[in-house]
Structures are given as structure tokens and as C-alpha cells.
Amino acid sequence: MAQVWLIGRPVAHSLSPSMHNAAFAKLGLPHRYEAKETADDQLAATLDRLRRDDILGANVTIPHKESVLRLLDEIDDEARRIGAVNTIVSRGARLIGYNTDKYGFEKALETQPRRTSSADGFPFTNERILILGAGGAARACALALLEHGNDVDIANRDPARAEALARSIEVDGRRPQVVPWPRGREPGDAIVNATPLGLGGEEAFEDVQLPKWVIDLVPTAEETPLVKRAKATENVTVVDGLSMLLHQAARSFELWTGVPAPLETMRAALPRPI
Ligand code: NDP
After folding, report:
1. Pocket of ligand 1 contains residue 134 by CB under 6 Å
2. What is the pLDDT along the chain (274 residues), one digit of tens a residue?
3. Which DSSP category does 70 fall into?
4. Entry pTM
5. CATH assignment of 2-99+243-268?
């Protein structure tokens, strides 16, 4: 039996183990996905164990997606462009970093039933989109949105981190713009919550009038307050964090196992229908 780990903090609430373990069982694979609560000062030692033990790889989540880059042996081109790794594949003692968050984000948007405005099925082009957060997930979303021809605003609790994101991500000469926290302002055409706000019952975009698209990355068993408000607001399309979770997980599964992920089995392991 080989293991796959989820490395982050906090990870106790994570829905990933049930999805991946259902997928392994469905395909008769003798693997096990386990959450490993990992503080900052334990990250290097945890990666050393990945090199030594019988481990296929790992997911990396909050707060390690950026800091893990310097501890890996190789980084896939897209993960390097994003500046964040959420998936590690072990090849013997070598650890290779990938990013499947961008794929998951794009897929979650492309599979929304409401409308498509571009040939590739991505629903936004030439729109102004506000991302709350400047961590690994925000980086993946910002790159995806810029690549699809949109303008991106970034607001973060720590503005210096938002500035660093804006300096390091660029598509055809366009970069994200750093803006103040959006209290009481018009947010643009769409908003993305790429912070954990919502996990503890808070509302990420409190006092903000909701635009026509609301994307909340927080993947929780219960809908977040933001998702609930957006669903109760007329003419707002909501993309729930579970949708991105499903698609990024499927891509990670394929990187570890080399076989197509049983998407419907993974979807059925989620706590709510999406
Ligand atoms: P990171 O640790 O890389 O970044 C965390 C971000 O959240 C930073 O911008 C941080 O701000 C901000 N933040 C943390 N706590 C607070 C707070 N109390 N108030 C305001 N801002 C806060 O994490 P990730 O980018 O990996 O994850 C961000 C969120 O996105 C998580 O909730 C995660 O679960 C979710 N996510 C969901 C995915 C899905 O598939 N649905 C995939 C990836 C992420 P600062 O810089 O100021 O510390």
C-alpha cells in the first residue's frame, strides 16, 4: 500500500481524504490518502519523509503552497508561472511540484450551466474581477483570469503580499492591480474569495454588493455565508468551492496514479450535490 498525504494546517476539516479514498477503492488501488497537520517548522521534515517512505505524493494546502517551492527538486512550468504548488509527485527520492488549482478553477467555471461567452467555454473575457486573497489559490485564479483576457484586482489583508503577487504574475504585459479591501465598494463583474473567510461562519464580502458572478473557493460541508447570500440574491451565479475541489483533485489523482480519475465516484463522495 502506498500513501498520499495532505500537508497543511488546518486540515482536519478537509473533504479531500474521502474523495481520494473513494476513488482508490473504486479502481481497486491499494492506496490511502491521509491528512497530515503540518506546522511551518515541520514542513521540511515532512518532505524528507515523502522522499524516504512508500508515498506516491501529496497535496499541499494552506499555508504552505508558496513556501514548499524551495524544498522541491523539480517544478512543473505552470506551477512555476503561478508561483505555487498544490500537488507533489514522488519519483523515488525526487519530489516534483505541480499546480492543479488553476485547472480546477477553470473547470469549475467552464462546467457552470449559466452561459459561456468564449469559444473555449470559459465564462469571462474582458471583465473586471476582484480576488480577495494573495496566497497560492489567488495566484492560480489570477493567472487563469488574465489568460482568459480579463482584468484582475487583488485585495489582501497584507497588501505587501498582494504587491508581490502583482509583480510576479503577468500575461501579455498585463498584471493584477492591487486594490484596498472592498468594504462598501462596487466590486466589478465577478468576485473570488481566495481566503479561508467563511470557514468560521464569517462573510468574506461583508458590506459588498454582490456582482453577477460569485466564486467562493472555500470548500466546506455546509455552504459558506457568502454562498448562501449569493444563492438568495437574484441574477447572481454562484460557483461553490466544492466544484473546484473536485476538479483539482481529479487532476492530482491522475498525476499520482497515471490513470483517469473516476470523477463521478469522487463527486458522490462530496457532502453536498454540486
Ligand atoms: P494560502 O495560505 O496560500 O493563502 C491564504 C490567503 O488567505 C492569504 O491571502 C491570507 O492573507 C488570507 N487570509 C488567511 N486568513 C485570513 C483572515 N482571517 N482574514 C483575511 N484574509 C485571510 O492559502 P491558499 O491560497 O492555498 O487557500 C486560500 C483559501 O482557498 C483556503 O480557504 C483554501 O481552502 C481555499 N482553496 C480552495 C480550493 C478548492 O479546490 N476549492 C483550492 C485551493 C484553495 P495574508 O496574506 O494577509 O495572510
Report:
1. yes
2. 799 999 999 999 899 999 999 999 999 999 999 999 999 999 999 999 999 888 999 999 999 999 999 999 999 999 999 999 999 999 989 999 999 999 999 999 999 876 556 667 888 899 999 999 999 999 999 999 999 999 999 999 999 999 999 999 999 999 999 999 987 777 789 999 999 999 999 999 988 999 999 999 999 999 999 999 999 999 999 999 999 999 999 999 999 999 999 999 999 999 999 8
3. G
4. 0.96
5. 3.40.50.10860
156 Cα to the center of ligand 1, angstroms: 10
Cα 31 to middle of ligand 1, angstroms: 28
The CB of 63 under 6 Å from ligand 1? The reply is: yes
Biggest alpha carbon–alpha carbon distance for the chain: 53
Q: Catalytic site residues?
A: 65
| CB proximity list for 142: less than 8 A, separation 6 or greater | 131, 152, 154, 165, 169, 176
Is-same-fold flag (2-99+243-268; 103-241)? yes
Give ∠ CA 264-201-216 in degrees, rounded to 5.
45
Listed in order, strand segments (DSSP E) in 61-118 are: 74-75, 87-91, 94-98
Which atom of ligand 1 sits closest to the CA of residue 248? 40
Whether residue 161 contacts residue 138, with contact meaning beta carbons closer than 8 Å, is answered with: no
Domain ranges for the chain: 2-99+243-268, 103-241
Mutation to probe ligand 1, out of 99, 178, 195, 202 (largest number of atoms < 8 A from CB): 195
CA-nearest residue, atom 23 of ligand 1: 62
Q: Is ligand 1 within 6 A of the CB of residue 240?
A: no
